[in-house]
Design a protein that fits this description.
The protein is of the alpha+beta class. It contains 14 helices and 7 strands. Helix 3 packs across helix 9.
Length: 417
């Protein structure tokens, strides 16, 4: 065992050295030649450790993100594929792998339709192929559910084990893929607008397909193996229990897997009779839970250490949350491109420069208002930040007055509690 430990340290150093050379401009073929000295001894954990060590020594996560596709390409010759762990059908990783297989099938159909649409000169044939191309693209949009589960569940649990590389780099690559798919959709909508439409469409389609395939490789060869190595049964229980709120990509989970719910050992026992006395009244805990579930807004509270402490769980949350997020640094709950804004808000609140920050966006056809409030105690002491998100589409559409009781027809048909 000691010789294996001794071998790992120089392997990691060699790996880090040659990847640093790659970042400094050394041609990829020269880097590959140096990596061959590792003689296929590097596994998924060492690739992740190498990238994390580079960031720990000052290399920006954005630089790792920019080069990580090249990292995976030049390290494939030395990456050892460890024996797979048999998984029960329906295990979260079993589902993620089956989703990847389904995505590969869609990519194959998309490439076929893409080539036919580009090659045909007949307008009708081109239109039929273009329709197949657009259908494949619509199916690929389902990747959002796959990526959401990865970003909010797998990354959350990895961070508990001190592994932050995936959330800093992979999430950025996911966002690049999202942007590529949106760009492809935009190009396909502009079909026929210019003479160079076909080469632009082909370029956009190949870029998206290649990026998705590269991400599948990273997940299959590195991320999933790392999670299977590190996660406890309790953590897989969390992932399994929280996954349905994000949805499934192209396939449904198989039957057979069922982890026990995460343990509540050590949590204080509560009853509906137990309550909280506030300056303006008293609430039992069952009342408090029901109020949070009834509020027409989504609430998330981040404490003074920037860790997520609580979220409300209404029936129609705009942004899905899971218990895996509790205790997670809020910076890691956002895509890399948003972290600078998050830190700006939190620093302004902490320093007393601001008390409110607000945004409004269009989301899936709804108008969403997002507000952040600094939460302070006596003597202006900063306790944390409250995020309040509300769908205000119907509120914006209100006109005139309504002074008399009037139930909406759909609302009136709801079963009475």
């Amino acid at each position: 065992m000691s010789e294996l430990i001794d071998n790992r340290a120089p392997r990691l150093q060699t790996l880090k050295d040659v990847i640093t050379e790659l970042h400094n401009g050394t041609p990829a073929h020269e880097v590959r030649a140096k990596l061959r000295t590792l003689v296929r001894e590097t596994d998924h954990s060492e690739i992740m450790a190498m990238e994390q060590d580079l960031m720990a020594h000052g290399m920006p996560a954005g630089e790792i993100q920019r080069m990580c596709d090249l990292h995976s390409q030049v390290t494939r010759e030395v990456l050892v594929t460890l024996p797979g762990i048999p998984l029960t059908p329906g295990h979260p990783i079993d589902t993620l792998r089956r989703e990847n297989e389904a995505v590969k099938g869609v990519l194959a159909r998309m490439r076929s339709a893409m080539n036919e649409a580009i090659e045909h000169s007949d307008r009708n044939e081109t239109s039929a192929s273009l329709l197949d191309w657009q259908q494949s693209l619509n199916e690929l949009m389902d990747l959002e559910k796959h990526y959401q589960r990865k970003e909010h569940l797998l990354f959350s649990c990895l961070e508990r084990h001190g592994i932050t590389g995936p959330s800093k780099v992979m999430w950025g690559k996911d966002d690049e893929i999202r942007a590529m798919l949106k760009n492809l959709a935009r190009v396909l909508r502009s079909e026929g607008d210019s003479a160079d439409w076909k080469p632009a469409a082909m370029q956009a389609g190949e870029a998206a397909a290649n990026a998705i395939e590269e991400m599948i490789y990273k997940e299959e060869k590195i991320l999933f193996s790392l999670c299977l190595d590190k996660f406890t049964d309790a953590e897989w229980g969390e992932v399994w229990e929280s996954s349905p709120r994000y949805g499934w990509c192209l396939v449904e989970p198989r039957k057979g897997f069922c982890f026990p719910k995460p343990s509540t050992a050590g949590e204080p026992e509560t009853t509906s009779a137990t309550g909280i006395q506030l300056p303006t009244g008293h609430l039992r805990l069952d009342q408090l839970r029901a109020i949070f579930s009834t509020l027409p807004v989504d609430i998330t509270f981040v404490d003074a250490d920037d860790r997520v402490a609580l979220y409300s769980e209404g029936p129609d949350r705009l942004f899905a949350r899971s218990k895996a997020v509790i205790g997670r640094k809020v910076q890691n709950c956002h895509p890399p491109r948003s972290v600078e804004i998050v830190n700006h808000i939190l620093n302004d609140f902490r320093e007393g420069k601001r008390d409110v920050a607000e945004f409004w966006i269009n989301l899936r056809g709804r108008f969403v208002h997002i507000r952040y409030f600094a939460v302070r105690a006596e003597e202006n002491r900063y306790l944390g930040t409250l995020e309040v998100t509300q769908d205000v589409t119907n509120i914006r559409a209100l006109e005139g007055e309504q002074r008399l009781l009037h139930y909406d027809t759909a609302e009136a048909q709801k079963p009475q509690v």
